[in-house]
Amino acid sequence: MSDNSVEQFNEVMEQGMRLARAYQWANAVDAYRKAVALVPGSEEARFRLGWALWNLADSEKPTIADLAIVYGAQALGLEQTARDGRRRVQFNRQLLKDAIFYLNSVIDRDSTNARAYHYLARTFQALDMRPEAEEAARKAAELEPGNANYTNLAQNFERTLPSPEVPKPGTAHTWDDLVLDPRTKRELKQMQLLLEKPDLAKELGIHPPTGILLKGPPGTGKTTIARILAHESKCNFFAVSPPEIIDSYVGESEKRVRELFVRARANAPAIIFIDEIDALLPIRQGGVAIHSDKVVNQFLQEMDGMTPNARIFVVGATNRPDMLDPAVRRGGRLSREIEIPVPDHDARIQLFKLSTRNSPLSPDVDIEELSRLTDGYSGADIKALVSEAGLMALIRIADENNSDPRCLSMADFRMAIINLG
User: Fold this and answer.
1) Around Cβ 405, how many Cβ atoms within 10 Å?
2) What's residue 115's pLDDT?
3) Cα–Cα distance for residue pair 385/414, rounded to 1 Å
4) What is d(CA 283, CA 274) in angstroms, rounded to the nearest whole number?
5) Which residue intervals of 110-220 are DSSP H helices?
6) Residue 192 in contact with residue 265, Cβ under 8 Å?
7) Where does 197-245 have alpha helices with state H?
8) Of 35, 101, 194, 347, which has fewest CB within 10 angstroms of its CB?
9) What SS3 state is found at 213?
10) pLDDT at site 288
């Protein structure tokens, strides 16, 4: 290269950087294209071009609203509007594919370029190419383990798919730790047997459901029930909530539903527990409400693909079953529904006994009286009340600074009821 060519190349690279700092990504892409044309073998110019292309695509990526307009325009016969929307999506994908080409060309020249692997991972991720994105992110983190951005991206891929929960030794609960009416507990144990002995169920001609729906007010122990069912039936336990699935990016939510079932199948026998399932799978509305509808459709497709002997079981929990899409509750899906009500007087007595079994109680503590004072309390409320009473006792004992027996008194419980009321 002549001195003039080198000088021109450096000027173009500096111009591209100034434009990038001003977030003028389209102009930055043009500058870096010129730099690559001047020095085709420059790794830095090729990296900068791939990097700028990714940023341009990311800054102009279609949103859910954009796709809703496209679908709406198609439904209304507005072909020009629909074509314009489709062109924008196609242009965005072409930018990402161009970014992959230039970033890969950098890696071909230098397989230790962590920056190129990192942005290649982000580009693959934008194109919904998860295996390639995960591999590139892992490579970047391995090359520069001290770079927090690289390691965080690699770890994010690991968190996208929940791992089975493993209870700590001594913390796993059993059916004896549940306060439920005998009929409800018997139904849950039946589900346990179907999971434990699928061959026997098949031999008896039983067509087991692919899941159950736990209905009841908040705090009645639906999550605990699901964990105990998994523990007692020796199943891996995957717990998710709607915020972990729902994503604003187009297609990302459906992908996470699909990945959840893939991970569960790879770790069978397994229970997938979805808290507040009505928020994830609401009644489908049609029309422009395509985002939630697609999530419901993907979920139904995954459930329909579950065979009775696959030993994958879905447990949904909700306090608003009326908000759940009816197709989720039909036969062969979450057709078995179990009501988990607020505990009655006798159940509250048992809950107080369970919640205070590790707490020293004063002789004046009357469990039956506490049950009468807490009408309408859920199991979680009672647990919180015992904890609050313990805090009252701690403050009292510390203030009195005496050697009286260190225990929870009835007065502590009464004060806790007032504080939580």
Assistant:
1) 9
2) 93
3) 10
4) 16
5) 114-126, 130-143, 148-160, 182-196, 198-203
6) no
7) 198-203, 222-232, 242-245
8) 101
9) strand
10) 45
Q: Are 47 and 36 in contact (CB under 8 A)?
A: no
Comparing C-alpha atoms, which of 37, 36, 98, 86 is closest to residue 62? 86
What is the mean pLDDT of each successive set of 10 residues along the chain, which is 421 residues long?
A: 77 92 92 92 93 89 57 60 68 90 94 93 86 88 90 73 57 77 88 84 78 90 90 89 76 81 85 92 70 84 68 90 90 85 92 91 93 92 93 84 77 92 73
CATH 3.40.50.300 residue ranges for the chain: 175-339
Tokens, residue 71: 């679908």
Residue 194 exposure: Cα atoms within 13 Å on the Cβ side: 24
Task: For domain 345-420, give the fold.
Answer: Helicase, Ruva Protein; domain 3 (1.10.8)
Which residues, other chains included, contact 397 with Cβ-Cβ below 8 Å and sequence gap of 6+? Answer: 404, 406
Measure the CA–CA gap between 357 and 169, rounded to whole angstroms: 19
Q: Write down the residue that tokens 């020249």 correspond to.
A: 109
DSSP state of 215: E
Contact 132, 97 (CB under 8 A): no
Token digits for 131? 């295996």
Reduced DSSP (H G I as helix, E B as strand, rest coil) percent helix, strand, coil of the chain, to 5 = 65, 5, 30
Contacts of 189-195 with C-beta under 8 Å, sequence gap 24+, read 189/232, 191/229, 191/233, 191/313, 191/336, 192/229, 192/232, 192/233, 195/229, 195/233, 195/235, 195/269, 195/271, 195/311, 195/313
The CATH superfamily holding the domain 3-160 is Tetratricopeptide repeat domain (1.25.40.10)
Structure confidence at residue 87 (pLDDT): 73
Note the pLDDT of residue 80.
Answer: 67
Output the CA torsion sign for 395, 397, 398, 400: positive
Residue 124 tokens read as 């693959």
Beta strands in 234-341 (DSSP E): 236-240, 270-274, 312-318, 336-339
Output the pLDDT for position 420: 86
How many other C-beta atoms can be found within 10 angstroms of the C-beta atom of residue 142? 13
Residue 271's Cβ-side half-sphere holds a number of Cα atoms within 13 Å equal to 31
CATH of 175-339, picked from 3.40.50.300, 3.30.930.10, 3.40.630.10, 3.30.565.10, is 3.40.50.300
pLDDT of residue 253: 81
Q: How many CA atoms lie within 13 A of 105 on its CB side?
A: 19
Q: Is-contact 321 278, C-beta < 8 A?
A: yes
Classified as helix, coil or strand, 238 is strand
C-alpha 248: how far from chain center: 13
